[in-house]
């Protein structure tokens, strides 16, 4: 078998040569340029497919044929034959014929063929461009095909431009990207012969095509004809290895999955021409680690890159595998996987995921626990075993008390680190009621079991709990204790007799009583019989009384060793007695000596007692008995009154006795001096200095008034 060449490795390095415009009897090129054949079941090696006829009108000296597929050739007789038996080659084949004088392209359409690599016409962009000479213009160009990665020597001729009607002395000029535009200087043209040459190595992955322009100019550089497009196509060489660019590659497959389950897809990238075998990749697994229980646990689709399982579900058991993680070295090879292809590798990590195919089991059927009565907290840890993955809900346990907990005294929770069941007492237990408890507990997983697995007898356990007797403190009943008494009852009055009992009924202990907290020091308790009496007068208005309720605490102490103590609360509701006189506010007022409004101040009254021992209050001016009164007080409402003047007074300080009386039975009265400052008020300024210098009592005011009347 002959060695394969790349699909696009056809070199078109010359242009068609024209005869003179007058010599049109012979047209260079193929006599027939388009052929149609039906796709056979198989192309047979060395069997002629069709015959091609090419002429350069010069005797076909040094005629060479190149075929777009490396699986075909044209023999010396012009017959197209296959180099080996092959079933599919695509939809189109191109045959390139070339001599030093002319070249042409023929197209073979395979009816019913599959487009596996694209057409050469698409690759070379020949659509709408005929490689045969056109008679309507004298400059004749054909696309130039140059393989990438050519070696020295440079420059080397790659094609030729022909102008059949070029005037004497005219020159060829080449322009465009790669000539006078960046990257400059890659191509040049012999201005006299039209030969096009390349000056350096080309890289198709950098620039795949160059669009140049050819024109003819006179000796002064003026364009005679053109510009005419000249396309340079860089032919791909297999110079790029496949690369896996999307890593890391991690796949997951559930244990017990059926054979053929797809795990993941791995695809590589090849920078070579995707229309050629240079970028046609094939995949295979080079190495599997670990290689147990089978060295071939997985298979990769050579074309798609899909990784699938190939072992039976029984071998894909996570609990029996040495390691649930597999690492595969995946190789991608171009040239459709042929030995001449370049390779690239990547690592695929495949995790065998757990499913809940093992139920949790208690490590023993019965557990024992001991707890003191009255105590709360964890009393025992229940241990289980589960073969599933500890990082999943298939392993995490959920516990339930299914029997023996009618009073909801117990709770069980899962320890997230150990998966143990932590059984706790949440309501204190009483030894005198029950010294033993038996609980039935079941365990399940957070995730449901697979259909063919169920919870068995090992998923339940019994816990026996022994309650230890402790010396409990006596208990007051009722608690709190409440009594109601009038304040100010006589010292030594009995309030109540407290009652405390010892829960340790089997120990037959005695109880003594003591005062624990008595903020005001008003109470005493008999240590033997628990009688509470007063040692001081109870005062409802004391700051230690809140909302008429006084709170005290008492202790009941048993005779145990060591003794235990219970605390009881006594709430004394104090009924009000009218034992507080009302008081007025404010006690200081100011008024201008020339005020037109003789109102002095509005007084309010308050009382520490409760209704009906408070308002309505009665306001009076004490001892104002002379006929010509100076002051007046008027009731506003039940709690307020207005003090006003009957005439203006001189600047001075006046003390007015105000008497206020509450509504209690019997009522209580309070007399308070109201200090009134009569000030000078001029030009919006208030001056009370003169008032400070004079101090008149109400009696002095009355005497002055009487003296004034006598002088009249």
From TrEMBL:
The organism's place on the tree of life at top rank: Eukaryota
UniProt cross-references to Pfam families, sorted A to Z: Cadherin, Cadherin_pro
Subcellular location: Cell membrane; Cytoplasm
Keywords for this protein: Calcium, Cell adhesion, Cell membrane, Cleavage on pair of basic residues, Cytoplasm, Glycoprotein, GPI-anchor, Lipoprotein, Membrane, Metal-binding, Repeat, Signal
Protein's UniProt keywords contain Repeat: yes
InterPro entries in UniProt: Cadherin, Cadherin-like_dom, Cadherin-like_sf, Cadherin_CS, Cadherin_pro_dom
Record's bilayer topology term: Lipid-anchor; GPI-anchor
Signal peptide location: 1-21
Limits of the Cadherin domain: 146-244, 245-362, 363-476, 477-584, 583-694
Function: Cadherins are calcium-dependent cell adhesion proteins. They preferentially interact with themselves in a homophilic manner in connecting cells; cadherins may thus contribute to the sorting of heterogeneous cell types. May act as a negative regulator of neural cell growth.
Description of how the protein assembles with itself and partners: By contrast to classical cadherins, homodimerization in trans is not mediated by cadherin EC1 domain strand-swapping, but instead through a homophilic adhesive interface which joins two elongated EC1-EC2 domains through a region near their Ca2+-binding sites to form a tetrahedral, X-like shape.
Official protein name in the record: Cadherin-13
């Amino acid at each position: 078998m002959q060695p394969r060449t790349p699909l696009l490795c056809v070199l078109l390095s010359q242009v068609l040569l024209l005869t003179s415009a007058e010599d049109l009897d012979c047209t260079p090129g193929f006599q027939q340029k388009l052929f149609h054949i039906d796709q056979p079941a198989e192309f047979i090696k060395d069997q002629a497919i069709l015959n091609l006829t090419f002429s350069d009108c010069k005797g076909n000296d040094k005629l060479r044929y190149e075929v777009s597929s490396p699986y075909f050739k044209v023999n010396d007789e012009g017959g197209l034959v296959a180099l080996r038996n092959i079933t599919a080659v695509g939809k189109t084949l191109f045959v390139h014929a070339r001599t030093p004088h002319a070249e042409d392209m023929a197209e073979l359409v395979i009816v019913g063929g599959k487009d596996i690599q694209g057409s050469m016409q698409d690759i070379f962009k020949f659509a709408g461009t005929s490689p045969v000479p056109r008679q309507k213009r004298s400059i004749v160009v054909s696309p130039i095909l140059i393989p990438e990665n050519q070696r020295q020597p440079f420059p080397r001729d790659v094609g030729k431009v022909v102008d059949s009607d070029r005037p004497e002395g005219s020159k060829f000029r080449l322009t465009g990207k790669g000539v006078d535009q960046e990257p400059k200087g890659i191509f040049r043209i012999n201005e006299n012969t039209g030969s096009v040459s390349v000056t350096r190595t080309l890289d198709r992955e950098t620039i795949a095509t160059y669009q140049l322009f050819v024109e003819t100019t006179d000796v002064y550089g003026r364009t005679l004809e053109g510009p005419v497009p000249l396309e340079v196509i860089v032919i791909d060489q297999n110079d790029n290895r496949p690369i896996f660019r999307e890593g890391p590659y991690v796949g997951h497959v559930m244990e017990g999955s059926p054979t053929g389950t797809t795990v993941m897809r791995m695809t590589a990238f090849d920078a070579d021409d995707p229309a050629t075998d240079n970028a046609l990749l094939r995949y295979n697994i080079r190495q599997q680690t670990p290689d147990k229980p089978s060295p071939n646990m997985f298979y990769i689709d050579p074309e798609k890159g899909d990784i699938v399982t190939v072992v039976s579900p029984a071998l894909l058991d996570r609990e029996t595998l040495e390691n649930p993680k597999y690492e595969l070295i995946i190789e991608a090879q171009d040239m459709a996987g042929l030995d001449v292809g370049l390779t690239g590798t990547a690592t695929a990590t495949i995790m065998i995921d757990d499913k809940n195919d093992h139920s949790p089991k208690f490590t023993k059927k019965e557990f024992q626990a001991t707890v003191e009565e009255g105590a709360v907290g964890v009393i025992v840890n229940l241990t289980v075993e589960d073969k599933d993955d500890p990082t999943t809900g298939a392993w995490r346990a959920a516990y339930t008390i299914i029997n023996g907990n009618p009073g909801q005294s117990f709770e069980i929770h899962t320890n997230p680190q150990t998966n143990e069941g932590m059984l706790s007492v949440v309501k204190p237990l009483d030894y005198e009621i029950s010294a033993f408890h038996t609980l039935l507990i079941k365990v399940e997983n957070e995730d449901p079991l697979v259909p063919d697995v169920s919870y068995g007898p090992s998923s339940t356990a019994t816990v026996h709990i022994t309650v230890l007797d402790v010396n409990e403190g006596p208990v007051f009943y009722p608690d709190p204790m409440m009594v109601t008494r009038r304040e100010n009852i006589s010292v030594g009055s009995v309030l109540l007799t407290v009652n405390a009992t010892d829960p340790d009924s089997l120990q037959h202990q005695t109880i003594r009583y003591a005062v624990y907290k008595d903020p005001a020091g008003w109470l005493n308790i008999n240590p033997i019989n628990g009688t509470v009496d007063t040692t001081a007068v109870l005062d409802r208005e004391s700051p230690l009384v809140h909302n008429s309720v006084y709170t005290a605490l008492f202790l009941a102490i048993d005779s145990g060793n060591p003794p235990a103590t219970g605390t009881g609360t006594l709430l004394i509701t104090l009924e009000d007695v009218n034992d507080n006189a009302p008081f007025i506010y404010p006690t200081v007022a100011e008024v201008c000596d020339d005020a037109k409004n003789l109102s002095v101040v509005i007084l309010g009254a308050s009382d520490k007692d409760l209704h009906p021992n408070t308002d309505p209050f009665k306001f009076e001016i004490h001892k104002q008995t002379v006929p010509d009164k100076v002051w007046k007080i008027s009731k506003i409402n039940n709690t307020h009154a207005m003090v006003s003047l009957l005439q203006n007074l001189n600047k001075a300080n006046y003390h007015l006795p105000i008497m206020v009386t509450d509504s209690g039975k019997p009522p209580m009265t309070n007399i308070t001096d109201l200090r009134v400052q009569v000030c000078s008020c001029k030009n919006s300024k208030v001056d009370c200095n003169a008032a400070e210098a004079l101090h008149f009592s109400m009696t002095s005011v009355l005497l002055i008034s009487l003296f004034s009347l006598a002088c009249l």
